[in-house]
Design brief:
The chain is α+β, with helices and mostly antiparallel strands and 350 residues long. The chain has 9 helices and 9 strands. The longest helix is centred in the last third of the chain and has 58 residues. It is elongated.
């Protein structure tokens, strides 16, 4: 072991019961009955991680939530975990007999990105005044996994004599000495699983989905089909727009042509040469009649008689006005003469 890995922690990629029971991953024999039982179940293949009918959903989109309060319900847990993404399924594990909560649950999200967000941000948060831990679904994603009821798992208490290490909550300490691979091979014990050394402040990444060639072909086929659908949709939309534009342009041209032709017809009807000739003939005939009437002797006599009568009436009105004006002046002068005479008589009497 190199000295650079002394201050680091070790995260295993697969489950090993003896290593989980060791504080630094260097143990080669089980140190308690729980570890021995887990080793027997692992070697005999007594546990099937995919045989549980209650386990549903995509394991790559599922997180494990532990250390829950026994008063936490599905509604409270769903409300708390919905902060990190869209919850698709939720299973709060309960006791078969009593129905009470066992203190852990499995939450499935719609996408793997939402699952990784909850895995990173929801760890060591509080739900109902209880600090929870969040981990990925090791039951289906970690090879060789053995549950706690069969002596495995990652939990344990020192008082019970079963101390477990591993996972993101209690990672393995960096071994102080090199792993004795020769002794393990001589005793017939499988070596500890491979893993990675990381800093204590780094967050271990959950396993990613392995994309095989079939998945790649399917994804490429799906992408090609989606691209074809998008292209067909775009082409259909463009064709619809072109048809609409052509129809609208045709309708506009037809409307404009009809209105223009109607206006031309109306103008032609109104301003036709026949109508113009008739109107000109009517006006010329009327002008001729008026001109002939003016030149006729009867029309001249009538006009002279009218002018004489108008002059006579005008003269009589003038004479009348002048006569009334003269009378008025004569009356005013006689009145003044009378007043003067009366004033002279009065003076003589005095």
């Amino acid at each position: 072991m190199s000295r650079s890995n002394v201050n680091l922690v070790f995260y295993a990629d697969s489950y090993h019961p003896i290593q989980v029971g060791s504080i630094d991953g260097t143990d080669i024999v089980p140190h308690d009955n729980g570890v021995y039982r887990a080793l027997l179940c692992s070697s005999a293949g007594l546990y099937d991680p995919f045989g549980d009918p209650k386990v549903i959903g995509d394991p790559y989109c599922t997180v494990f939530v532990g250390r829950l309060s026994h008063s936490t319900t599905e509604h409270t847990l769903r409300k708390a975990m919905s902060k990190y993404g869209r919850v698709k399924n939720l299973r709060l594990v309960r006791d078969i007999v009593t129905g009470a909560s066992r203190g852990y649950a499995f939450v499935e999200y719609e996408t793997e990105r939402e699952m990784r967000r909850a895995y990173k941000d929801a760890h060591h948060t509080f739900i109902d005044d209880s600090e929870i831990i969040v981990d990925y679904n090791r039951q289906q994603l970690m090879p060789g996994w053995i549950p706690r009821r069969l002596g495995g798992g990652l939990g344990g208490r020192k008082e019970s004599g079963q101390l477990r290490f591993g996972g993101r909550e209690r990672p393995f300490r960096a071994p102080l000495q090199s792993i004795p691979f020769d002794d393990l091979k001589r005793l017939g014990i499988p070596p500890p699983p491979e893993g990675s050394y990381m800093s204590r402040f780094q967050v271990p990444s959950p396993p990613r989905r392995n994309r095989s060639s079939i998945d790649r072909e399917e994804s490429s086929h799906v992408r090609s089909s989606i691209d074809k659908e998008e292209r067909s949709h775009r082409s259909s939309s463009l064709e619809r727009e072109e048809r609409y534009n052509t129809r609208s342009s045709r309708d506009k041209e037809e409307r404009y042509g009809k209105s223009h032709s109607e206006e031309r017809e109306e103008r032609y009807r109104k301003g036709s040469p026949v109508d113009r000739e008739d109107h000109h003939y009517e006006r010329s005939s009327l002008d001729r009649e008026k001109y002939n009437q003016k030149r006729s002797p009867a029309y001249r006599e009538e006009t002279l008689h009218k002018t004489d009568a108008e002059e006579y009436s005008h003269r009589s009105s003038r004479d009348r006005e002048e006569g009334s004006y003269k009378r008025h002046r004569h009356n005013s002068g006689s009145d003044r003469h009378k007043k003067r005479r009366s004033t002279a008589r009065d003076h003589s009497d005095c």
